[in-house]
Design brief:
The protein is of the alpha+beta class and about 325 residues long. About 20% of the residues lie in helices and about 35% in strands. The chain has a single domain, classed as lpxc deacetylase, domain 1. The site of zinc ion has 5 residues, from helix 2 and helix 6.
């Protein structure tokens, strides 16, 4: 709903985008170990991301929303009305990172195929079908003050900034990871170039424990970086020396998309994961005085927004 503004006013703002066609993938699901498939379709303005379970009677739908997070153990899983979809974060990261605002995602197998463990296949798929502008301005969430979540030595923060950026620090007591830090200034192009390729990773010593819990049943060297005590087991090695911290940035962009609206602000993660990102998003929703909703126009080449207009409605009147 955009109130008393003329069409020409609306056209100056950055518009919502959807896919120019349908993308399909199938393959093994990381956690169930079963075959799964996904069709990623265009959707109407203001849809956001919606999942539809195409192999469940009645084809129930689950909105990609922080309210629908059901589990954050090793992956982010969504659920609603008794149905669930596992491991949504790499797909959501690929869509959000590529600048897709609206998509309907049909899933068979109740988990997103893990593919190569990164978001690169999704980004390539989006590039193949292209994006189309939908003639409706894109609302964004502008962070006005610091919002923080902490737990057990992990921390995630959102701070005011004139564009979206993600910085991340990891510190693993493993000789091949150690401490890695990266600051990423978001743009769809930079996401495709610097973040999308980074694969999920795990430790060989943890594999049996995960399998005993019914997790990672589909995990293999085809879809994850696996670390032994002192070496990478994957024959091709790493895609970059800091692939690990890049993957954490990928995961965080996927998790943050569950706010349902792009952010103008700086996210900072310290040893953070899906669980702390969920706490951070709950904190965002609990503190509406720390953000507002805006329409944006005119970025410069650095994706800084020069012109920002508050949406002239009460922020809580949209569903988040
Ligand atoms: Zn991940």
């Amino acid at each position: 709903m955009f109130f008393a503004k003329s069409n020409s006013d609306m056209e100056k703002y950055v518009q919502q985008k959807t896919l120019g066609g349908t993308i399909e993938f199938s393959g093994i699901a990381l956690h169930t170990g079963k075959e799964a498939s996904v069709r990623i379709l265009p959707a109407e303005p203001d849809t956001g991301y919606r999942f539809r379970l195409s192999d469940v009677p009645g084809n129930p739908e689950v909105e990609a929303s922080v309210h629908n997070i059901r589990d954050t153990l090793l992956a982010t899983s969504l659920g609603f009305n008794g149905v669930s979809i596992k491991t949504v974060e790499h797909l959501l990261s690929g869509l959000a990172g590529s600048g897709v605002d609206n998509s309907l995602i049909e899933v068979s197998g109740q988990e997103i195929p893990i593919l190569d463990g990164s978001a690169a296949p999704f980004v390539r798929g989006v590039e193949m079908v292209g994006l189309v502008e939908q003639g409706v301005p894109k609302k964004m969430m502008r962070i006005l003050g610091e919002i923080e979540a902490r737990e057990n030595g992990s921390r995630a923060v959102l701070e005011p900034a004139d564009r979206f950026s993600v910085s991340f620090t990891i510190d693993f007591a493993h000789p091949l990871i150690g401490r890695q830090e990266m600051e990423f200034d978001y743009s769809p192009e930079a996401f495709g170039r610097e973040i999308a390729f980074a694969r999920t990773f795990g430790f060989l010593k943890d594999v049996q424990g995960m399998v005993d819990k019914g997790l990672a049943l589909g995990g293999s060297l085809e879809n994850a970086v696996v670390l032994g005590d002192d070496r990478i087991l994957n024959p091709g090695g790493l895609r970059s020396p800091d692939e690990f911290v890049r993957h954490k940035i990928l995961d965080s962009i996927g998790d943050l998309s569950l706010l349902g609206i792009p952010i103008i602000g700086a996210y900072k993660g310290f040893k953070a994961g899906h669980r702390i990102n969920r706490l951070l998003m709950q904190e965002v929703l609990a503190r509406p005085e720390m953000w507002d909703l805006v329409l944006v126009a005119d970025h410069d080449g650095q994706d800084r927004y020069r012109e920002i207009d508050p949406v002239d409605s009460h922020p809580l009147s949209i569903t988040l």
